[in-house]
Amino acid sequence: MSPLRRIVAFIGFVMLLISFMFLFESLWPAQRTVEVQPLTPGDLSLPAPQSAVPGALLTMLLVPPRRRARLALALLIVIALAVACAGAPPPQSAEPTFEAVEATSAPGAPSEPEPTQPPAVTATAISPSSTLAPAVMPQPPESRAVEIDYPLTLRVGDSEVIRLALVIADDGTYLTPTAESGGRVATGDRVEIPNLYNTHTITATARLDSVGLTIDRPGDWEQPLLPGDNVVWRWTIAADEAGRQKANVIIRLRFIPKEGGDIRERELWARTLTIESTTVFGLPGPLATAFGAVGSVLGTVLGFPFADKLYAWLWSKIKRMLVGGKTSE
User: Fold this and answer.
1) At what angle are helices 285-303 and 3-27 packed, to 10 degrees?
2) Is 127 in contact with 15 (CB distance < 8 Å)?
3) Is the dihedral of CA 66, 67, 68, 72 positive or negative?
4) pLDDT tens across 110-160, in order?
């Protein structure tokens, strides 16, 4: 075997090894993780109505100064009237009054002491509504959980999928209130929670935002939340450059009354994802795959015709080294 053929075969063999390394690194699947966060029906309950006072104060701050003074004066008048009405004594009932007349006893008649009357006891009926009890807001009859499946690593130029789901967990419609104090547990009566699906149309809106990642569907993604059904969102992402990337995921619920009224919203779940975008020996994923494929073909073409002679030559060299080492001993 001539020296030129040996050099060509050796170059083909080295190119084949390097190409296999690029293919292995570029085709190795990205590391992924799945996280689950359980949610209770209370997390999905209807939010309490907001007070109108903060909105009025915010409106006063946004209006021009002249109108702001007028609104402030009107607000002070309303507060003064409310305080005056609250401090006024309650109206007295118009009942007939009777004058007390002293009875004079006849002269010489012995006066008998009158028996002492016990104080009158007034029975006050306590209504069940007067006791302090937590307000029960309407909520769905099932428990749910948030599942998110996302990659921990992402090669530059490749694409991966982020899966977000709002899945059903088994639970009943009835809840039992329980209180614990001083090591004792007191369990109350079973309370039926109003079904929120009967009065409201619920939608779930998910949003995925990131600066260093390309997202196929940016912005809000709204889907209906139906009884007993899972809600799934899928985004395809790609990294533009290597480094640690951040992605923000949020789920909001929207409650639309079926009989009309104010639409309420609440934030259900939010999370910041950390994704490490990498390269394959400094090359993007698709380019590394192409380099590995082409290099494998060229290495095979260059090294295959002389593979048997190259291996025989290498084996003879190794055999001589082993024999020389034994003779020197």
Assistant:
1) 150
2) no
3) positive
4) 444 455 554 444 444 444 443 444 455 666 667 788 999 999 988 888 889
Residues whose CB is less than 8 angstroms from the CB of residue 91 and which lie 6 or more positions away in sequence, other chains included: none
The residue type of 240 is: D
Give the CA angle between residues 248, 253, 254 to the nearest 5°: 130
How far does Cα 250 stand from its chain's mean position? 6
**156 exposure class (CB count in 10 Å sphere: 0-12, 13-18, 19+):** buried
**Which of 236, 30, 265, 32 lies closest to 147 in space, CA to CA?**
32
The Cβ of residue 111 has, within 10 Å, a number of other Cβ atoms equal to: 6
Number of other residues whose CB lies within 10 A of the CB of residue 56: 11
Q: What single letter denotes the amino acid at residue 32?
A: R
Nearest by Cα to 235 from 259, 212, 218, 211: 218
Between the two ends of the chain, the Cα-to-Cα distance in Å is 32
- Domain annotation for the chain: domains and CATH numbers: 3-23+284-328 (no CATH), 30-49+138-278 (2.60.40.10), 50-85 (no CATH)
The DSSP bridge partners found for residue 154 are 277
Tokens 């001589």 identify what position? Answer: 320
| Burial of 123 per CB tally in 10 Å (0-12, 13-18, 19+) | exposed
φ and ψ at residue 2, rounded to 5 degrees: -70, 160
Whole-model pTM above 0.90? no
pLDDT single digits (tens) 286-316 = 776 777 777 777 766 666 665 666 667 777 8
